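S1.2 Input.
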Amino acid sequence: MGYISAQNVLPEQVIELIQQYIDGEYLYVPRKDENQKSWGEKNGTKAYFRKRNEEIFKKYTLGLTIIELAEMYHLSDKSIRRIINNEKSINL
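S1.3 Output.
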């Protein structure tokens, strides 16, 4: 996130109004709700975990055990079970 000078984008009247509340300080303007991105969409994290979880489920259906998958992916047995159950519900 970069900074944009208010003088470059806002009318003088708006700047004067803002200065009544906050003069010379930094001000964060949040995105509109409809423009918000959900967790992991911007940097690809969500897609990475989606692919990983699909791989785990596929390997499970091919016969790998929960213990083997937990060791392979450095996750707990409980996490592997949760991923498998979530993937089962998605693939119904």
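S1.4 Remarks. The chain has one domain: 6-31+41-90.
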